[in-house]
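Changelog-linked ticket: iron/sulfur cluster example.
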Amino acid sequence: MTLSELKKTGGFPDSLQDSLINWFKKDHRDLPWRHTYNPYHIWISEIMLQQTQMARGVTYFERWVDRFPDTIAVADAGQQEILKYWEGLGYYSRARNLHMAAKIIVEDFAGEVPCDYDQLIQLPGIGPYTAAAIASVAGNRDVAVIDANVTRVYARLFDIDVPVKEKKAKDQIARIANELLPVGQSRLYNQALMELGGLVCTPKTPKCSLCVLSGFCLALDRDTVNKRPITEKSKKITTVQRLSGIIFHKKRILLLQRRENDIWGGLWEFPGGELKEGEREDAVADKILECTGFAVDVIDPIKTVTHHYTRYKSILHCYHCRLQGDDIEPILKAADDYRWIFPEELEQFGFSAGPRKVIEYIQKHRPALFSL
Ligand code: SF4
């Protein structure tokens, strides 16, 4: 059934919009960025919540705005501090883009985050979804927002029987979203849709008996809720293994800084390299030689940690090593910078999840290692 056919059934879609907005006004979650709808807060929350669970996002958001209350504070900060405050959220290009965008906003918009979609979409790290979210939620501009939650809700409401990644379905959902968007109420309507997808019309076991839209839902009517949305099979997860060494020399340990243009650019790590197929796990000394020119003695294994990302699994094998000789100047083959630091200085550096887990393991289970 098309939207116009549905409209002919009477009262629809206005009552759908009213029902949804009234539900949201009553049952929405009390989130810190909803207190003021400050565009800067909406921007930070939207970037942080990509690939991040809500409770975790709230904690990071509060810590962030406490330290960086506005775009000027972000623009003035050094990249190391920005990455440090992002540590644990992953996908660090988001933090680097946010830093770049803050500088542009200070320069071109006197520090005020714009609410105009066309201006927002020009900024680093802001794509169509984020631009629409900031424009509508912060600025109440009439722009439809389409994310995974909204896609799922519309695919069920309209019983869309084509895979939602296909152009045909995307076009259909975009058309529906634009037609249903109530003029002057996009802030509430868009948030309500996303909230419904996040709390009620969830991917697994949606709570249809509690859903304010159940009277409008074609999938519920046709008993196809569990078949909608039609998604592609999930992509294969690739496993990446890495060997690294915590190299000690005169009570200090060596850190390398990842190259600017890689996924963890700007973050720090322990030296090492990828464990390729057919290589042995004790090849850590060779990997360290390759990436620093240092010969090391491998004392013992410390810990193997695993971290899951959307498309791959990362396994890090970490070893306790000791530098041979007194030459402490590495040859940097795949890093931008290096530091020899005391273990108590580790907290001043930003790490990705793997090395951070190793540090936490040592602090908890082998603290003597850091007081050698
Ligand atoms: S009735 Fe069920 S499937 Fe339909 S929108 Fe509500 S929660 Fe989703």
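Closing comment: Example verified and attached. Residues 153, 156-157, 200-201, 206, 208, 211, 213-214, 217, 219-220, 225 surround iron/sulfur cluster (CB under 6 Å). The mean pLDDT is 91.
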